[in-house]
Amino acid sequence: MTVTVHVLFPGSLAAASATACLTDEELARAARFRFSKDAARWIECRASLRMILSNALQLPPCEVPLLLTEFGKPRLAPPHDGLHFNLSHCVGRAVVALSIDGPMGIDLESLERAPDLLECAATFCHPLEINDLPADANARATALLRIWTAKEAVLKALGTGLSHPPESVRIIFQQEGGSAISEPALEGLDQQRLHELEHPGLAGYRAILSAPQAVKAIRIIEGI
Q: From residue 89, how far is each of 23, 124, 180, 206 by CA, in Å?
């Protein structure tokens, strides 16, 4: 029961190689971005995802059959839907998680974002989480980023994303992994376990994986 996490470094894939991996629909979507730098980052992340999935499925990247759920989460069409994956990216880094053991969610955030969360804790924190936050501003910001990253991962694993109110979910961090509970109960939440990822390629970032309880090992590799 293993999850493989690919750590990606945006800018390492040539633009021509990236666009060759995408469908016409994806290229049209990229063209609608307001800023070219955002379009370029999306193209490279999408192409990298397709290349990783193509290696796993033994298909050309542009033929990997990607679909979207009702909440916008990408998934594979049958008969390839036994392979689960999730992508997260921010400035300077991206991560892709793969597993055959059930739905997962992964979130990646720059540590530099932590201070920005100090003024909006009530918008995503459960009341009991707020009560447990440290008073010191730096420690509080670090704790908030940890909570935010974990909630993104959990809700992505469940397929709802932030369409489910994040403040209704409570994250409990434990020495080995972590868990989440919700009020009212959110179906499937008790089947997920949180893993805080550590790797030299993730220095300067917070990365948390939400994976099925059955997962016992996580393999982190750099690149596609």
A: 20, 20, 23, 11
Q: In angstroms, rounded to a whole number, what is the distance separating the alpha carbons of residues 163 and 85?
A: 20
> Mind listing the domains of the chain with CATH numbers?
2-222 (3.90.470.20)
Residue 178 — φ and ψ, nearest 5°?
A: -160, 170
Per the CB < 8 A criterion, the answer to whether 41 and 48 are in contact is no
| Cβ contact 71:180 at 8 Å | no
Token pair for 191: 């089947």
- Indicate the DSSP class of residue 215: -
Beta carbons within 10 angstroms of residue 153's beta carbon:
31
Q: Residue with structure tokens 């979130």?
A: 107
Residue pLDDT, tens place only, 70-83 = 888 899 999 999 99
pLDDT band at 24 (very low <50, low <70, confident <90, very high): very high
Tokens 């192409």 identify what position? 47
pTM for this entry: 0.93
The tokens for 186 are: 């959110």
